[in-house]
Amino acid sequence: MAKIQLTDVFVEMADTLVVGFDLIDFLHLLTERCVQLLGISATGLLLTDQRGALRFTAASTEQTRLLELFQVQVDEGPCLDCFRSGQPVSVPDLFGAVDRWPQFTPAAIETGYATVAALPMRLRNEIIGALNLFDARPSSITPDKQRLGQALADIATIGILQERAIRLRDTLTQQLETALHSRIIIEQAKGVIAEREGLDPGQAFERLRNVSRKHNRRLSDLARMIVDGSEQLPPALT
Description:
It is a single chain. The protein is of the alpha+beta class and about 240 residues long. The chain has 2 domains: about 5-170, 2-Layer Sandwich (Beta-Lactamase); about 180-230, Arc Repressor Mutant, subunit A. Helix content is about 60%, strand content about 15%. The protein has helices spanning about 5-20, 25-40, 60-75, 80-85, 105-110, 145-195, 200-215, 220-230, and strands at about 40-50, 55-60, 90, 115-125, 125-135. It has a 5-stranded antiparallel beta sheet, with helices on both faces.
């Protein structure tokens, strides 16, 4: 764990957060750098979805990917315990953890791992997932390695939450722009209806809305078709 190597990794991850951020690529980079920096066999990452359920997100090897998927499938293992408690989970020797995780432990041992540590991905009270560290040698994931792994997990957490905030902001902005554009179209449609049927703007809007509801049409879609002349309102009932 040379200092220059550690510095390079932190700079690399920071650059990835700023320029051309790709979440999946960023998380795979995290798992790969964890293995290289910590000198361990493999790393896996589980994150929550919108419903709060853990989902596989990234792994440094295909075998670890399958193990992480199995952990989610059987609903037991260090990553799940870590996520639920918000605290690190460390097992120096997996051979002594069969009672704790009767399905996950044999699968992890069969994959070739003898020790595991799960680190929470959290910012204050928000927990978004967990980072799993695996190694083939018992007791090899030392407290120092866990602290460094936690630092990398913390950087990733900030990056993920930043990406989610930007995505939410962009979604809200897009929704607002769509709503404003729809409002303009509706105002134009009101003018068309008012002129054709001799109504005031308020009456024209009620006419448009009533037809929209009666025929289960989106108000903005109906308004747009009236403005471009592709559709006219049916005669009003007298």
